[in-house]
Amino acid sequence: MGMLEGKVAFITGGASGIGAGTARRFAQEGARVMIADVQAEEGARVCDEIARAGGEAGYVDCNVSDPEAVRAAVAATVSRFGGLDIVFANAGINGVWAPIDELQPGEWDRTLDINLRGTYLTVHFAVPHLKARGGGSILITSSVNGTRTFSSPGASAYSTSKAGQVAFMKMIALELGRHQIRCNAVCPGLIHTHIGERTEQRHTEEIGIEVELPQGSPALRGGEGDPVDVADTCLFLASDLGRHVSGVEVYVDGGASLLR
Ligand code: NAD
């Protein structure tokens, strides 16, 4: 029997990268999965892969910064699968990385809207359904950036959003423990996904600080990982193995952020 047999999972940003890897992993373990994303074609492809492997998944178009879209996506999940047990607020962007006097208000807002407001909206609309089930597990994808490292020049909006997610997760863990709802965050280091291709960097070379590191990286696998490495951590946190774990951030970076 799979570790998530009978569970229903709602995964934002599930069409690509860490979200897609986690959707596949959760489905392998018996969960029925709803992918919420803004990339319908990629989302459908992940659903097909899951179906071919014998799992069950659906796709719903949902911009996580839009309250009505998130409300409707959560409702569609509950209506299709009959309830909700696991919520993975994972959708996120790097946005624009630029010197603070160049970074525009609209650019700041977009990063915070998707990464932080999107996390709040996902949890906000999902929680009544977790309470109705008598418990559940909330996972949030934060980052080493903004929580343990501050070494990406110009990533002030991104790092702020990622730090905010961890504070939010801890508040929610305390608030919802009485409802048997756990809340945790994963903080990945460098994971091979598509996020870098969608990053806009402007003049960050002007504000970088040179740091001298030891020769070579002492971290596991040079500190680089794949979506499945994060997915397996999420599986632990979402499943019964993590039943007494709430309010923590787990670094998934091979130890790299201990040093930089
Ligand atoms: P990715 O770009 O491969 O996947 C992100 C997914 O989120 C995409 O499918 C994208 O369409 C979706 N998305 C973007 N904006 C959205 C919106 N408004 N509404 C709904 N979906 C939206 O990137 P990834 O690396 O898998 O990123 C997932 C999460 O991991 C992000 O929160 C990111 O900050 C975090 N993260 C990634 C790394 C890394 O090295 N890849 C490191 C630390 C944290």
Descriptive key words:
7-stranded parallel beta sheet; two-stranded parallel ribbon; globular; Rossmann fold; binds nicotinamide-adenine-dinucleotide; 6 helices
Biggest β-sheet strands, sense, barrel: 7 strands, parallel
* CATH superfamily annotation: NAD(P)-binding Rossmann-like Domain
Q: What is the beta-strand fraction? A: 15-25%
Order of helices and strands: EHEHEHEEHEHEEEEHE
**Lateral arrangement of strands in the main beta sheet:** 3-2-1-4-6-7-11
**Measured distance between first and last alpha carbons:** 41 Å
The CATH architecture is 3-Layer(aba) Sandwich
CATH topology: Rossmann fold
Structure classification: alpha/beta
Quaternary state, please? single chain
Given as residue ranges, the uncertain stretches (5+ residues, pLDDT < 50) are none
Shape: globular
CATH class value: Alpha Beta
- Helix-residue proportion: 25-40%
Average of per-residue pLDDT values: 96
List the total number of helices: 6
Cα-based radius of gyration, to the nearest Å: 18 Å
Count of domains: 1
> What is the number of E strands?
11
Bound molecules: nicotinamide-adenine-dinucleotide
Explain how this protein is built:
By secondary structure, this protein is an alpha/beta fold. The chain has a single domain (8-259), classed as 3-Layer(aba) Sandwich (Rossmann fold). 39% of the residues lie in helices and 18% in strands. Strands 3-2-1-4-6-7-11 form a 7-stranded parallel beta sheet, with helices on both faces. Strands 5-9 form a two-stranded parallel sheet. α5 (156-176) links the parallel β6 (136-141) and β7 (181-188). The longest helix is centred in the middle third of the chain and has 29 residues, at 105-133. Bound molecules: nicotinamide-adenine-dinucleotide. Nicotinamide-adenine-dinucleotide binds next to α1 and β8.
